[in-house]
């Protein structure tokens, strides 16, 4: 018998109408609920930055620079659809002010570029492609504009709202409208070449913008500004908090509220969105062609976003030709195939389901509603019952390593703490070891754990904000994912390859060729004393299955360099190849002097800040001198939100002594340097 609960309670429920639990607020509105059920969708960053090899353009690049040779929005959308994305968000205008549509309010747009002879409209091409292939379409419009002469004054706000109306009225239905949080700072500003500051909360008239969006695009959720429907999760690394409430106190302010975890006592439904790029940067940079996130990293991102009650907005930097690069396309399709394999065979559909409490004994709230495949039906407990147990029993032992749970969030998010247990032949209950805090569930929570062979699973809901409302529970036995090895080189040039699965072997190459099962087997760290590229994969010797290939390109080792301001132990952290260790300059110092030991011809340098949870001293503006000559100066765009390696390139310069100056810090009073390296000719 599939659904086991007392027969008398079933008959009593059939004879009387049992009301659904009252909502426990706050609750989502219809547009928020529709948005949450999309789960994954794509970001596309494309524009002048793509051709400038920059993240944040200054606003002074000629529009004629934009000239893709083979732009194909259908290729974008076909790729993203194959990856399971439900929609596409386009950066119609980034901070440099260049518009990807022929705006009536400026000439700084595609109409002043050679692309399509000045008659092109990229927003139109992508929105049409989305409709052809059945994907939703969304718009990003940067409030900041480093090109516009009137930025910081009232005239620009009118311009900004006019452009917003163009995008809201001319390109069909939108599912999301995005306001970026970067506002004010250095810019070209029509040739003024100065720094301008604004009060973002009042300057852009976001409340008026919200009314415009509501009237013209009633189905679109709003990200950012002061009237948002969804919230930024607080990082650009691809993860939400293990505890993740879908609400916060007040209207939501990232400077006040806990956006990473939400707030249990919140009164405003504001679910989280995780935004992250498939590459280190948001725009395309040729140097990042070998720096795609690995398959295992992308799988982790899925579990740490969608699997933690957040939506995933995954960015694709379209290349200069106007296409999603082949490597990016292959990686994201492999990601979708991996996830499809992990969730291919649901194990609870044939299990018997028991509950220790059923709301009014009614069939409509029976525990079997959690496995009937209908998200609109749910198991519920009586009023006042905020704890409960669901037990699933198998006809034959099953190997399980994934558990998916969903609450019926139209009535609110309730679960605050739960536990998962399994029982085998000994009929004893054992905890599932997840390594995570099992607190909130919300729209969806997915738990990974080491496989257990069990005859029964049970979920103990230990604390909730009201009667339980669980609409879906699924279990899976996901195949083992062979993770790409991690490639690390220390300051002396010794390369270490690390694999997560101790039973697997690592195969590698150093000659630029792709490794395979016949490549040299990694046995111990090896020396790479000069420039070179290491490629490696993990191979299962039993099945012959191989992971994706990991690749890292190295310049000269820097371990022999000497930093005059630091003790040897501290300076070693700058060159050890380990981004989890960081050197801090002595308090009060804003620069360091690096002696390379001999004269070299340099073409660039790379800086990585302390990206640890408690790290500080992130350098946002820099200057680099070589033998006293300035060779580079500028800003590390978006480094605070995306604290990855920042590469600066310049024409070849010869010298021996470098001076790295931190012209501005994001926080703290001592610059941090997790890694520093040079690029040589």
The gist of it:
With 681 residues, the protein is α+β, with helices and mostly antiparallel strands. It is 16% helix and 31% strand.
Any overview of this molecule?
- It contains eleven helices and 34 strands.
- With 681 residues, it is α+β, with helices and mostly antiparallel strands.
- The longest helix has 17 residues, at 154-170.
- It folds into four domains: 3-25 and 345-476, Galactose-binding domain-like (Jelly Rolls, Sandwich), CATH 2.60.120; 42-338, TIM Barrel; 486-554, Immunoglobulin-like; 562-680, Galactose-binding domain-like (Jelly Rolls, Sandwich), CATH 2.60.120.260.
- Helix 4 (73-82) packs parallel to helix 5, helix 6 packs parallel to helix 8 and helix 9 (295-305) packs across helix 10 (326-342).
- The chain is 16% helix and 31% strand.
- Strand 21 (486-489) and strand 22 form a beta hairpin.
- The strands form eight sheets. Strands 1, 14, 15, 16, 17, 18, 19 and 20 form an eight-stranded mixed β-sheet that branches. Strands 8-5-4-3-2-13-12-9 form an eight-stranded parallel β-sheet, sandwiched between helices. Strands 27, 29, 30, 31, 32 and 34 form a six-stranded antiparallel β-sheet that branches.
